[in-house]
Amino acid sequence: MISILISFNSFSQDKILSKKIVYEVKIMNSRIEQSVKKDSIVYDYLVDKRFWWQTIDTIISQVKSKKLYFKTFERENLVFDSIKKDLQKKYLACFRDTLTDKKLQKLLEEEIRAIKFEEEWTYNPQTMLINKKVIGYNPIITRDSVILQDEDLVPKEFFRFELGWIYPSLKPELKDTLCVVRNIHFTIPIYNKTPYHWWDSHIEPEYSLPYFESYMQKAEQGQIKVYAQPNSTESYTRAEIIKRKQFEMMTTIDTQDIYGNDVPKDTIIKGNYNTDNLDYLRFGDEWYFDIPSSQFVKNVNYLSPMIQIIGMDGGLRGLMPIYYLRRR
């Protein structure tokens, strides 16, 4: 346990980016470890293992003592014994095995490998840095299985159980905290095509478009420094930033020969990305867990809007960061 002091920007001058956004972050990455006898799945922690365990232990202890309650997303209280029964039922159906109290304890200690957050986002209009205020969180138990994909063995989620939402009522005072992670690197979509769940990884365009327009404009005018990578030593020049907006793509067009016949021809077309093309956000976050309030507190170390790279077949080839903005 450590005591910290985090300096926040003045929220009075900040602008709203999202009044409500829900997204999921992996706590561990899974990979296949091959051996002569048997291939197995290994999980690599993306956070401080010791402090993550202590965080989860604090939450579960508070729930068991009825100082905290797991809730539905609509904020209706869930009884912990009922959660255990639902988990045991799902575990039995999935693994054909009884989930004893000992196995349950191990699940809670070691297999909460993801977490959902409900947050409110604001940003400083001068620095364009995003502030995240955590409203609630939902720990998720997951377990992967090995599958064959394109002749390769890969891990794929096989079991999943969301424990429920925690909505702490106390405000963090930051006097008794755990540093869960100094920097966790992740990417989330920010536009959801499912209107009913508009809050899932979704920022409303009325807030996001002005933010991205200002972000790009300030970068081009040199009002904020942006970088190729989070750890780059030199910031981009104006010429480099403008060049980043341009892209080239080979496509086939129909032309006519001297006889009037249609002839397909490969050609290079040029275009420019704009705010309409920014579909994802990449973050590097610093997380603290405030023990007295049982609440998470976050600092954004760096961020970058991301562009989808679409191939000629219409398939997603990958994501490209336009440039990184960082806190320090």
From TrEMBL:
Protein name: Uncharacterized protein
Lineage: unclassified sequences, metagenomes, ecological metagenomes
